[in-house]
Design brief:
GO terms for molecular function: D-lactate dehydrogenase (NAD+) activity; NAD binding. With 331 residues, the protein is an alpha/beta fold. The chain contains twelve helices and 13 strands.
């Protein structure tokens, strides 16, 4: 069987080919799955997608009409897939339920410390042989408070790093993580976490209940000199409300690896085009904001685990097994 994989990065391609070697043929495309590209999948029983592919009703209908029966998503998140439509069409949908939490947690800390210590500004200066220190003063994280919104595997990994810094830990989640409690984390209300934390990091999935979890009201609760980091899903933050707060001179720094309207932008080279997203264009102009292109997961360890799990999902499908990764089972 030949598998069609959409949205494959050049670094990812050899890992995918190796994972499927000796099992199935795989055709890797660097284009994302959209309404325009969906017809390419005609004749492929299995299609693999990335998080920035758009699998709404029309795309899924095109896939089903072309004979696709399994969508194997190469990510944990699946908010880009209309599962109800997939089920109605009799399609199986699987994802990668977990991979290295350290990749995302370490990158979240990288963003937080980069804006705290003004690393990008300093690096840009030294390229021009400007070695002044004005405007580069950061602060120790030791003794300060880390607020972790979502204390699953990634949130726990972030908390362990924060604990190593000697920080006070506050957590918010639907259920307490005993490992985080063992680190000394105190579970509090979301409002208290936002009000007391020096760095706030988001590690919850995007769903209707968490859409714009950090809205204008939540942002106003945060300290004026707080650091906000989002390496989870862009829709967790109301981007326009964030711009409004930044215009008022608030926050020591904001590190964003995700953006709520990133589809059609992230993972692509738009350097020679005019980006029409005024909110994103404004965000990247703030000197205390660092935006990266959804790369927190992008380590050889994590991507290798994602690809291996995707290959296992395809094998389970062909052999009639069902694992915890299946979102919509075979009808």
């Amino acid at each position: 069987m030949e598998i069609l994989a959409f949205g494959v990065q050049s670094d990812e391609k050899p890992l995918i080919e190796k994972a499927f070697e000796g099992r199935h043929e795989v055709r890797c495309l660097d284009v994302f799955l959209t309404e325009d590209t969906a017809p390419i999948a005609a004749g492929y029983e299995v299609v693999s997608t990335s998080v920035n592919c758009a699998l709404g009703h029309r795309v899924l209908q095109t896939l089903a009409t072309g004979g696709t029966q399994l969508v194997a998503q190469r990510s944990t998140g699946f908010n880009n897939i209309d599962l109800e439509v997939a089920e109605r069409l009799g399609m199986t949908v699987a994802r990668v339920s977990s991979y290295s939490p350290y990749s995302v947690a370490e990158f979240a800390w990288t963003l937080g410390m980069a804006v705290n210590r003004r690393i990008v500004r300093a690096a840009n200066r030294t390229r021009d042989f400007d070695f002044r220190l004005e405007g580069l003063m950061g602060r120790d994280m030791h003794g300060r408070t880390a607020g972790i919104v979502g204390t699953g595997k990634i949130g726990e990994a972030f908390a362990r790093i924060a604990h190593g810094f000697g920080m006070r830990l506050l957590g918010w989640d639907v259920a307490e993580n005993p490992a985080c409690v063992g680190l000394g984390m105190e579970y509090v209300s979301r409002e208290r976490l936002l009000a007391e934390s020096d760095i706030v990091t988001l590690h919850v999935p995007l769903m209707p209940e968490t859409q714009h979890l950090i809205d204008a009201e939540a942002l106003r609760l945060m300290k004026d000199d707080a650091i906000l980091v989002n390496s989870s899903r862009g829709g967790l933050i109301d981007s326009q409300a964030l711009v409004a707060q930044l215009r008022e001179g608030r926050f020591t720094g904001v590190g964003l690896d995700v953006y709520e309207a990133e589809a059609g932008l992230f993972f692509l080279d738009k350097s020679l085009e005019t980006v029409e997203d005024d909110t994103l264009a404004r965000l990247v102009t703030f000197p205390n904001v660092l935006v990266t292109s959804h790369q927190a997961y992008y380590t050889r360890d994590a991507v290798g685990q994602i690809v291996d799990a995707t290959a296992a999902n395809v094998l389970d499908y062909t052999e009639g097994r069902r694992s915890e990764n299946v979102l919509v089972p075979r009808s």
